[in-house]
Amino acid sequence: MSETIVYSKPSCPNCVKAKKLLDERGVYYEVKELGVDIQPQELFDLFETKGLPQPRTAPQIFLNGDYIGGYDQLTKYIEETGFNGTGYTL
Hints:
- The chain has one domain (about 5-80): Glutaredoxin.
- The protein has helices spanning about 15-25, 40-50, 70-80; strands at about 5-10, 30-35, 60-65, 65-70.
- It has a 4-stranded mixed beta sheet with strand order 2-1-3-4, covered by helices on one side.
- Helix content is about 35%, strand content about 20%.
- It is globular, with a radius of gyration of 12 Å.
């Protein structure tokens, strides 16, 4: 099963926009709220383990288990691939 996770934080406009974009495309995703579901240091450790640069903004999105980035990178990915949320691959 694919795993899509949005690492989000409260009162984050780009987090809201990213989740709305995924909702519009029918993508099932899990939200992990910073400070509630995952502590910032845990997120930093996860990125370090995966060999990714440390996140500096929210949201941070993993689509189908692959790192996409933030909201801007998600919109770019959708524009470039025509991603519609069904049968997607990276």
